[in-house]
Amino acid sequence: MKKYFFVLLLLLFFAPFVNGQTLVINEVVTSNSQIITDEDGDYEDWIELYNAGLESINLQGYGLSDNNDLFQWVFPSKTIAPGEYLLLWCSGKDKTDPLAPMHSNFKISADGETITLTSPEGGVVDSQDGVIIPQNFSYGRQPDGGNDFMIFPVPTPGESNTTEGYSEILEAPLFSVASGFYNEGFNLVLTANEPDALILYTLDGSEPDENNLGGTTYQYKNQYPQNPGNPVGVFLSQSFITYSYNGPIVISNRSDEPNKIASISSTYDFNPAYIPDFLLNKSTTVRAKVVKNGAMSSRVVTANYFVSPQGGSWFSLPVACINLSENLFFDYEEGIYVAGKDFDDWRAVNLNAGLGWCDANFKRNGSDAEVKGNFSYYENGMQKINQDVGIRIHGGTTSAYSNKSLRLYARAEFGEDRLDYSFFGEDNDGSFKRIILRNSGNDFATTYFLDAFIHNSVKHLHFDTQDYQPTVTFINGEYWGMLNLRERYDKYYFERVYDIPEDEIDYLELAGQVEIKEGDANHYNALIDYLEGNTLEEDENYNYVITQIDPVNFADYYITEIYIDNLDWLDNNVELFRRRTAVYNEQAPYGSDGRWRWILKDTDVAFGLAGSFSHNTLAMATEPNGTSHPNPSWATLSFRRMLENQKFRNYFINRFADLLNTAFLPERMQGIYDGMKQVIVPEIEDHSNRWLAIPSVQDWDNYTGAIINFATQRPAHQREHIQQEFDISGTVSATLNVSDTSMGYIKMNTININGSTPGVEELPYPWNGIYFYNIPVTIKALSLPGYVFSHWTGDITGFDEEVVFTPTQDFSVVAHFIPAVQEPEAEVIYFWLFDGNIPNDTPLTEINTTYPVSQQGVFVSYVSCLEGYPFNEGHPEWRIASMERRNKPTEINYQSQVNNDKSFEESGMKAIQIKQPFQFNEKENALLFNISTIGYKKIKFAFAAMDEGAANNLVVDYSLSNEVEWITTGMETSSFLLTDAYQLFEIDFSTIQGVANNENFKMRVRFEGDDMTVDNGKRVTFNNIGLLGVPITAEIPENKPRLFTVYPNPVSNLLYIKSVNNLNAVFSLYALDGKLVSKGDLTNGSIDVSFLEKGMYILNLSAGETRSVIRIIKK
């Protein structure tokens, strides 16, 4: 643990000073995550200079450094007046325009390093020794320009250091026993490293406070005028207190102690029957900090101790602990967990009103309704996370329930700005800004996991779902029943999942109207205007709309909401997002192309909870004349318009059929539901007793039985609804089979008929599905490695892998596969891994390949638009229009097999950057690749690249001869659109004559943009550049026949075959692409091949269990 202790007169190292010590480093921040952003919106470290003298000082030629090079970064001509402050960003961005924010070319280490300010003559003006400064704190002089130094919890960039400062920050107290689960009690000892410091602690969950040593009393109520005419309840009181530590604290099982906060009403009930009349399980919470006069108090340490005979096996689920000063939740005036004053005030002026839209403390929202507390999380008895967080009440109408949903906010001002743990399993992201402990919403009194079950069952579909982990919850050491840990959709979610910057997200909610959660609704409103004024029957209009919304996402989302019979949907609980882009970018990563995508949210009023398995939700979603919840006409417009287009309508019908045949199969849904149910079975009785919302375990079983019944009955009714809506006369049964399951499988419309598809068995063939009469289906044969598709038999025949078929009756098909003639797989020929071996801050002219297959020298060279490049340090054009290393790793196109199988995390990857300007005096920057392809064919060039404000497009051409001639012949495109995020670029030269097996192959990459002559310090960044190809082999391997003689070969007309033992043989003749061109028996001893095109063919000869494969040349 680091100790922040500062001796005032020894904190700075003073070299010989110039300017009479008038120019000083006045304030420093070495770890900034929330104080202030630079002009790019980045939280960068900074240094503040202050002129304490009476004369202006021109900083031109002054040096600033964090190493032995006193002129590591040099100031431009910039004057700082007497009493003026100058803020310098230490970001590594190297910006020297004196009329704009300036940035040094280095960053400051948070671990402490010396910072030196040097005059142009070489004299040290000011120097600060390495001081460890906590995140978002500053270290500076008080008063400005003086000799005394303080740590400031509230920094003042560019302003006077007038906030309260401290000479030291105390270390947190040490606990003799770690937080966790124990079989028996013990004595807990607290220790402070400061001998004259005092330890303060609490046992009631509150934060230790030196002003609360006498305790704090607050008021609450357990009766409210729930119904008109009910009397106003009386005030009751509770208190919490801070203690001074003077000896060991006894830790024991407290479950036999009286309930405290559990005895406080959390609703507006006149008779809150859910308040337990029995003793709850309890833990012991100890929260402590160290205090001392003149010093900044230590952070608060929180520990939870669960003492019981069961020890770590006390609970079957993870345990979530919330600890906070209880008045923040339960105080009548300020508490956010109670009905409180807001409800009484509302009832006073609404004497006879119902409760649907009442006010209450627990309905407060926004930052004013956020309180600080501690969140700890235990899994298998072990603490996984323990940090202070912001806490708000989550939910709309469900916030009135007794056990409330809590929204947790990780904030830097509380210590950590992320909840860094994989709550939902190792395969899921493990870094969260916000997370929810949810009371299961409208399912609060029924199954308690319906929404989670629905999300889990469709998480493989093309929309976002929220992960789930049920937990046992304790608040201030008292058992609080179960809450479901869930992801929360917000701008941080989309940044985490899709890498969308916070200021580039448009995120909307439809809740009676369009509500803007992030960004704006301009693009959405324009889309709705278009849909209101245009039919989508015409493909031209439809093709435009699908550049505005993702039709695959749209279809899956609507199918799911319709299938589950969500009755609180269409004009409510609808959320959608897009990355804000000027136009649709087809090449962008998923989620970043600028199109709207819908996300699944709040499905508690579904699956028969409020409706029936026979309810026609499809008709509800397509109602054109609705006027009220849930389907006013504005809420059904987009879906109705999309269904006007035949292409989308057929896709929607077939996709619905595909999912009814797989993901929505009753047996699959029941299996998922039963599995999730069994996880919480051991805890449901205690939870039911705690809150009484679920009357009994038997009632809970009855509710879950209703869910299974819905899953069983829904598909048949759903098919009837589809037939009614689209005027389809009936269904057809499809039976699909394959000749050999080890050789390939069938794709039916959108689903692969194999075990990787949810709802399809591991051994699925023959497979049966139900589809719709006269609705065209698409059937495709997909071969496994080493095999190729041969042909179809059954009700579909032919040799095309993909067939569009319009069924008018039950049908059956078989896909046949055969062994393929194996060609070597493409392999990496050359690869450039840009890592720490490339010198930093150095203009480069060429970089050798890091993975050469052959011994030939292969390199990428760089041509700058500046004559005389590269320049030496100190030259005015040094590091301009240059190729340099950059710290910008990406997994895109990383090839671990050419880097000793190192993972991406182990690779030490950096990047290269091409910097502005890109054109000057009719010259331009270019990357030149000198690449021999000797021994390889089917050449592909692949790399990752991103624009960082410098160019719009990459322009690629190539040369085939020793005499360089740049051409684009045969390329599908030579211009490639850049975005501000890494994307994969693949340039396929496999069909271009002359590229394969060419020792003189070269390639060039240039840049296009609006103005390529500007120099704003921007760049284009490249990574993971590789050349791939297929080795050229002299022969195609063949199995030489032992039982057959085949001649002549090469052959023109008749091919004669003789068997050694006169076996009864049959033959199949295939083209190299796997298509069957002829088959039959060998009764005549010959095969007519006169009709074949010239080339190579594969002959399969079979006699009983004997088979020979022979290569045939047709001349």
UniProtKB/TrEMBL annotation:
Coiled-coil regions, chain positions: none
Report keywords, A-Z.
Signal
Q: Where is the signal peptide?
A: 1-20
Highest taxon of the lineage: Bacteria
- Residue ranges of domain LTD in the record: 19-135
Record Gene3D superfamilies: Lamin Tail domain
- PROSITE patterns given for it? LTD
User: Which Pfam family is an annotated match for this chain, by its short name?
Assistant: LTD
Protein name as catalogued: T9SS type A sorting domain-containing protein
* Source organism of the structure: Flavobacterium rakeshii
Lineage at the top is: Bacteria, Pseudomonadati, Bacteroidota, Flavobacteriia, Flavobacteriales
